[in-house]
Amino acid sequence: MNSYKRITVFLLLLLLLGGCARISYLSDEPTSTLPAPVIEPRNPVVDETASTPAVDEIPQAAVADWETLYTEDNPVTDHQELIRILQDLKGRFLNQFDKPGWYQLVWLNEIYWIHISDPDSGRFDSVLHYSEHEKYNGFLRPWNFLSLDGHYGRMNSPSLNDFYFVPLETPPPETVWENLDYYFSCDFCVASEHLDFLIRWIRDPDNHISEKSLKQTHFSGWVGKYENQPVFIFKINVKYLTNFAYVDTGKLIEIEDHSYYLSLFNGGTIDGNTDRFYLSGGEELDDLLPYNLQQIAYFEELPERIQTLYDECYKKLIEFEEQN
Fold first, then answer.
1. pTM of the model
2. In sequence order, which residues have a C-beta less than 8 Å from that of residue 270 and are 6 or more positions away?
3. Which of 28, 168, 223, 243 is the most buried (most CB within 10 A)?
4. How far apart are CA 175 and CA 129, in angstroms?
5. Residue 52, CB half-sphere, CA atoms under 13 Å: how many?
6. Rounded to a whole number, what is the distance in angstroms from the first to the last CA of the chain?
7. For the sheet containing 110-116, what is the strand order?
8. From the CB of residue 272, how many other CB atoms can be counted at a distance below 10 Å?
9. How many whole angstroms separate alpha carbon 125 and alpha carbon 171?
10. What is the pLDDT of residues 75-93, one digit of tens each?
11. Phi, psi of 144 (to 5 degrees)
12. Residue 68 carries which DSSP code?
């Protein structure tokens, strides 16, 4: 009888684990239609000793019980505890890049591809960033490209039917994870970069935004639900005391309330918004901005349509380098 119970429990565990796998795409599957379908995020096992990609200052032990400890009625406000939680979420995101191949990420209408050959190195080998929008009539508008053999360039495409490379203002840095923002020309278009942005804000609230203003900044967070997903809700309240920030209309901002909804499954920012309260007494309640940084899909090889864009970028970049 005991053996029968053990077998039953074992089968149940297999079924549960099978349901949590990240969606992957093999090279022989038809993948020419983009954007990729919405990927349901998995709940990864967080290996605190994992070295790939490198995570700055991840604690040796997991943040104890924080997922059940903090609620809206009992939020965490301690800066060091908030940093530890955000670092834990960053680790969950980075632990998904666990095998060689291409990874597709999405932010608004921007598509980002990252290629990794050695997950244990903390490095990436190639990137391709482009915009995809219905108004482009099927044209993929490329912005940043790093070839597998190390050629990097940035592009412009004002005609929306062709593109060309432009000179770089600074030489490319080392292709380590911490420099991904340079290669994508964006500070937080990838979840790990956005979490680093929030961590820097906690560490230096006076100078991180509007450094010439005196301000009071309050951080808080708790675990809750957002669109039926478990999330860490991170709030930042900024009250300006001098040199008030302002919007395009010229209104002076007295208080800004920032909200970010971070996936517990993999650390990606799902949505965010900023509400503004003006010195004159008015207010502007912002709509949620769909970051979608929790979406990630794995491909062994680039889909045919994207491989065609990669090849065209490579050809034009080599020609540009030879002419300059």
1. 0.74
2. 226, 227, 229, 231, 261, 262, 263, 290, 291, 292, 293, 294
3. 223
4. 15
5. 13
6. 78
7. 24-25, 296-299, 101-107, 110-116, 126-131, 141-146, 152-156, 164-166
8. 18
9. 17
10. 999 999 999 999 999 999 9
11. -135, 140
12. H
